[in-house]
Design goal:
- This protein is mainly beta.
- It is 5% helix and 38% strand.
- It has helices at 253-258, 303-306, 309-314, 370-373, 377-380; strands spanning 3-13, 23-25, 39-43, 45-47, 51-56, 62-67, 72-76, 88-96, 102-113, 115-117, 125-128, 133-138, 141-142, 147-148, 153-159, 166-171, 174-179, 196-203, 209-217, 228-231, 234-237, 264-265, 299-302, 318-321, 355-356, 366-368, 385-390, 396-400, 404-405, 412-413, 426-435, 438-445, 456-462, 467-468, 473-474.
- The strands form 13 sheets. It has a 4-stranded antiparallel sheet, with no helix packed on it. Strands 10-12-17-16 form a 4-stranded mixed sheet, with no helix packed on it. A 4-stranded mixed sheet has the order 11-19-18-15, with no helix packed on it.
- The longest helix has 6 residues, at 253-258.
Length: 476
């Protein structure tokens, strides 16, 4: 089995008698080595550092070179562990300025197993389910592989949990990242990962953001047979894109929240996060973090200024407000019906490899299950969703009512603020089918005025700037 070594880097400035501007960092925080005895290289960034000297190295590990000209560090992992060589430990290097000041870099080394290589499976979303595993994908192609990228470096744009993605690096035209094992609150190991989502950006030589990839971290593989079902000649994921579960009507807030997943404006490849709580409390966006654990706020852009296709790709952390002069599309002029398709997987399709967006006929035979439809609102409201029944097969499937981001201003929209009425919810799911200026979506809601009728429309026309959840279907 392939084995990798990880070097984690942190920097400490040693105080000196003179103030001096200097810098020493290792952007990847790591070196990944495929097997014991193999060597690996990573880059470092430095300013006013004339030399970098290893001062301590764990037993069995070797620093092959520190190349100041090319700004690289190359190490070799132990070939065997017969003489007290260690699988993990801390290495220390001192960076010296021309005047003798020191900046210290501490490096954690570890050997772990497992590797999943997506290099030949091009997509805009990669599923990550295995702990203690490194993941690899092609850094020089976007979409389905037909978009060529001159990627010079990669960067974590956001993640939904602190340290969800570890040791992000780009070497030899490949993006590499690592998932750690989750621990309990008592600090005990589990066999799980910490679920969540992340967005990795590709930058060119001019440091322009040119593409981004969604990393879907979940303990429930959405492509596994037990997490899919058949409906109207489609194989359908039972999870929303970006979700860790299907709540199946559970009224626990945590389970409901895990079922929501991500939101997409029609035609955009970029995922947008939803609320920070299952009940859309205070309408707050979900918190996002960068690699250094700082918060990353969502941005809101006017379509007239930022609604070109290229702009939307180059600004993936932006919600684009609908343009009234373009029938509330997130594009600033015209509609591009080719961005998403149900007959072919396009370069802007947000689903993982082997999966794509459905046509609106996927939902054609759905209606609200009778038992749900006759519930009192007090019973139905805590479920945040309906069991929808396929009238052709009589099978029921639960769809979460995850609301939307409104086309008018990008706000989160799932609550009725009228205190005299019960708090409702609405469910929306995009399809790849367009209808004139708009596109079609599955829509359902909990009626707030009477419990004798609840709404469902399997081909609801929606303005394209709305951001809705997605269910992916297997490519036939």
């Amino acid at each position: 089995m392939a084995v990798m070594a990880i070097i984690v880097v942190s920097a400490i400035v040693t105080s000196c008698s003179r103030e001096e501007s200097n810098e020493l960092t290792v952007p990847s925080h790591s070196i990944l080595v495929a097997a014991p005895g193999d060597s690996g290289t990573t880059t470092f960034d430095s300013r006013n550092i004339s030399s970098l000297i290893p001062v301590s190295v764990p037993k069995g590990w070797t620093v092959i070179s520190v190349d100041m000209y090319n700004s690289t560090i190359t190490v070799k992992s132990p070939s065997s562990f017969d003489n007290e060589e260690v699988e993990s430990g801390t290495m220390t290097l001192n960076g010296y300025t021309p005047t003798g000041n020191i900046k210290t870099v501490s490096v954690y080394l570890a050997i772990v197993s497992n590797e999943i290589d997506y290099t030949d499976k091009h997509a805009n979303c990669y599923i990550a389910t295995e702990p203690d595993t490194r993941y690899i994908f092609d850094a020089n192609h976007g979409g389905n592989g037909s978009i060529e990228l001159a990627t010079e470096r990669v960067e974590l744009l956001w993640q939904t949990s602190s340290e969800l993605i570890k040791y992000l690096d780009m070497r030899d035209g490949k993006v590499v990242f690592y998932l750690e094992r989750a621990f309990t609150t008592d600090n005990e190991e589990t066999d799980d990962v910490v679920p969540g989502n992340a967005l990795i950006g590709a930058f060119d030589a001019s440091d322009k953001l040119i593409w981004s990839w969604h990393i879907w971290v979940t303990n429930n593989d959405p492509t596994a047979e037990e997490n899919t079902f058949k409906m109207n000649n489609y194989t359908v994921m039972n999870h929303n894109l970006g979700a860790d579960a299907n709540s199946d009507g559970d009224t626990s807030g945590n389970i409901i929240y895990r079922s929501y997943g991500l939101y997409y404006q029609w035609g955009r490849v970029t995922p947008i996060v939803g609320p920070n709580d299952y009940n859309f409390a205070a309408n707050y966006d979900q918190l996002l973090y960068d690699y250094d654990d700082f918060n990353v706020p969502l941005e809101y852009a006017e379509s007239k200024e930022g609604g070109s296709l290229n702009w939307s790709t180059e600004n993936p952390v932006s919600v684009i407000v609908g343009n009234p002069d373009n029938a509330y599309d997130c594009l600033n002029s015209g509609h591009d019906d080719t961005l998403w398709s149900s007959t072919t997987k396009t370069d802007y399709d947000p689903c993982p490899a082997g999966w794509q967006l459905p046509a609106s006929d996927l939902f054609a035979n759905l209606t609200i299950a009778e038992a749900d439809d006759v519930m009192s609102w007090e019973e139905a409201q805590p479920m945040y969703g309906w069991n929808l029944i396929d009238t052709k097969t009589n099978e029921e499937h639960f769809f979460s009512a995850a609301g939307r981001r409104n086309y008018l201003d990008g706000r989160l929209d799932n609550m009725n603020t009228n205190l005299e009425l019960p708090v409702p919810w609405s469910g929306y799911y995009w399809t790849a089918t367009t209808d004139g200026d708009d596109a079609k979506a599955l829509y359902f809601n909990l009626n707030t005025n009477t419990r004798t009728w609840n709404g469902i429309d399997t081909e609801h026309k929606m303005h394209r700037a709305n951001a809705l959840p997605v269910r992916c279907v297997k490519i036939k």
